[in-house]
Amino acid sequence: MRRIGVLLALLSCCAFLCPGLWAGEKGKRRIQSREQSVFAEVKGLVSRDKMQEVGLYEAVDGGETLISKTRVGANGWYGFAVEVATPGFYTVGGEKTSERIRVYLEAGMNAEVNILEDSLVITSRNSPENLLLAEWEGLFEPVRRRVDHMDYIFFTYKELFPYYMEFLPQTEAFKSKIHCRNRSFAELLKQTVDYDVEYFALRALTAIKIDRVVRKGCRPTLDEYPVYYKTLVTKDKLKNADLLKQPYGTDYLEKYTTLALQLENRKSTIADQLRWVPCDLLKAEIVLRHAGRAKTYEKYDEIVTYFARYLTTESHHRRMDELSAKLYVGNKGDKAANFTYPDRNGKMVSLSDFKGKIVVVDVWATWCGPCRKEIPALIKLEKEMHGKDVVFIGVSVDEKKDHQKWLEVLDKEGLEGVQLFADGWSQIVKDYKIKGIPRFMVFDREGNVIMIDAPRPSEPALKALLERELDK
Question: In which element (H, E) is residue 342 found?
């Protein structure tokens, strides 16, 4: 059960202001101290039975990413020091989302959250930003509980919708009182208020509720939605990626687009969902969410290939690589897991560029003795296959620092043709579950697997395999 407790200091100024603590010379020293540090601290007291660890999560890409865990000390205290490059939200607490609370952190800031038996307490020993955030958390918590806590399982939409509509004016009243010298935080908090209210309104539509009279599940029909829901979605609403600063950002996106299509009486396909999201970064999150649900590599590849124009950032590609490595098996006849690396001139070359040819891939490194031992046999095999529909691709997993050494070995050993530099133990290794090198792999003209642990060039079996494929 998640309850928010807030212990506020009695300030001489308005509870919604954050000036007094920062005034005068003392304030200047505190600001200077904050600027000089790149770390923020989170600490607190735990009195919850059986809670031995506390996690700290960063709100990134519209979700919560665990960045650190710490054990609760014998005295009940826990603490973190985290490097904060960009100010933003973090969550602290237990393993379940319902056991965590947001805090705002920037370099040099300290936050204190106590984890008590039935509540999470943002104490009075916090920054003005977190005291403001705590005010909102305390105000909104009764609404949150009525939406998705089992305490209110009989609080159906018949009671919930009127309750929600009566609460909405309080959000505007709260936002009107937000004044803070940290203007970027003030704007973030105003956005947060809007997103929180909308997100839990969306959750209310599918919340687990039981009609106490008939003792059956109870959800509203479209005709029973308040007018509010029709005003909540508009096609020009999500123009930027601010939503991804929230720990529930991607879940909001899914529920938002689902409602939009429900109002249109359309099925929830990826393409239809994307029509309701103007921002490409948000579109990418929808694509990745669907790709993450793919049961096979082929389905995953179909999704990310079709919507590749939205998957542009380092974060997108990292998560794509993780999904690819998880799904890819590489059985005979399976579609090859594609890879793209630079050649010696910096040109990006992909495995898929050679469709129509039989492809032999050699995964190797300059420091690998057995790899170097295979080079004469490899060069001999390449010459024997010259003029036939066979392409040989060398993929070096040397580290970036050894790039020049790789170029020198290519010249010294006479390695020509397609030579690519993978810059370390990278995606090709993860996809094909390579534990040791050299690894030779063979793919057919359609880009499907023939063998991902093929014989080495020094073994006659590799040449025989290629000749059989050429005769097909």
Answer: strand 340-342
The confidence score (pLDDT) of residue 146 equals 95
Last residue within a domain, chosen from 296, 327, 358: 327
212 within some domain: no
C-alpha span between 331 and 335 (Å, rounded): 9
Query: For the segment 294-305, what is each residue's pLDDT rounded down to a tens digit?
Result: 999 999 999 999
At 4 the pLDDT is: 52
Structure tokens at 434: 């390579």
Evaluate if residue 145 carries a pLDDT over 80. Answer: yes
Pairing of strands 110-115, 77-83: unpaired
Read off the pLDDT of residues 370-423 as tens digits, 9 standing for 90 and up: 999 999 999 999 999 999 999 999 999 999 999 999 999 999 999 988 999 999
Residues linked to residue 90 through DSSP beta bridges, in sequence order: 58, 103
**Domain boundaries, position 10:** 4-204
Structure tokens at 271: 């393409």
Bridge partners, residue 340, by sequence: 350
Q: Same domain, yes or no, for 304 and 379?
A: no
| Residue 107 near residue 34, CB atoms below 8 Å | yes
User: Which residues lie across from 102 on neighbouring strands?
Assistant: 91
H or E stretch including 138?
helix 128-148
Q: Are residues 311 and 350 in the same domain?
A: no
CB 68 within 8 A of CB 82: yes
